[in-house]
């Protein structure tokens, strides 16, 4: 019957340690959740910046493409003018040679 006398102080101390450990775990969890929210916010801002940069690059490429199309049209016009002038010159030379 001597073993029936249980010292609950030991169990109480262990319970207090477990409660303290749980409080620390909860504190760490809240800190990590806060850091996670901050990282998600940073990631969101970075994604937004990347999206804006992508749009800017696409607009730049579209503008360059339009400029090149304009330059191509000018070259085509110059080539047509050269071809026309060459035909006129050849016709004039043939006319001189033929007469």
Write a structural description.
The protein has one domain (7-98). Helix content is 92%, strand content 0%. It contains one helix and no strands. The chain has one helix at 8-98. The termini are far apart. The model has no long low-confidence stretch (mean pLDDT 92).
Instruction: Encode the helix/strand succession as letters.
Output: H
- Rounded to an integer, what's the Rg over CA atoms? 42 Å
What structural category characterises the helix and strand content? mainly alpha
Q: What portion of residues is helical?
A: over 70%
Quickly count the helices.
1
Give the percentage of residues in beta strands: under 5%
Average pLDDT metric = 92
> Segments where pLDDT lies below 50 for 5+ residues?
none
Rough outline: rod-shaped
What distance lies between the first and last C-alpha atoms, to the nearest angstrom? Answer: 146 Å
Number of domains: 1
What's the total number of strands? Answer: 0
Major sheet: none
Write the layout of secondary structure elements.
Layout: H1 8-98
Short description:
The protein has 99 residues and is mostly helical.
Give structural attributes:
mainly alpha; 99 residues; rod-shaped; single chain
């Amino acid at each position: 019957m001597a073993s029936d006398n249980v010292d609950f102080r030991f169990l109480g101390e262990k319970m207090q340690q477990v409660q303290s450990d749980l409080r620390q775990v909860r504190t760490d969890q809240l800190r990590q959740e806060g850091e996670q929210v901050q990282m998600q916010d940073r990631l969101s801002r970075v994604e937004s910046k990347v999206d804006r940069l992508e749009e800017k690059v696409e607009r730049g490429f579209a503008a360059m493409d339009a400029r090149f199309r304009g330059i191509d049209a000018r070259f085509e016009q110059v080539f047509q003018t050269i071809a026309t002038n060459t035909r006129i010159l050849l016709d004039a030379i043939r006319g001189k040679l033929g007469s």
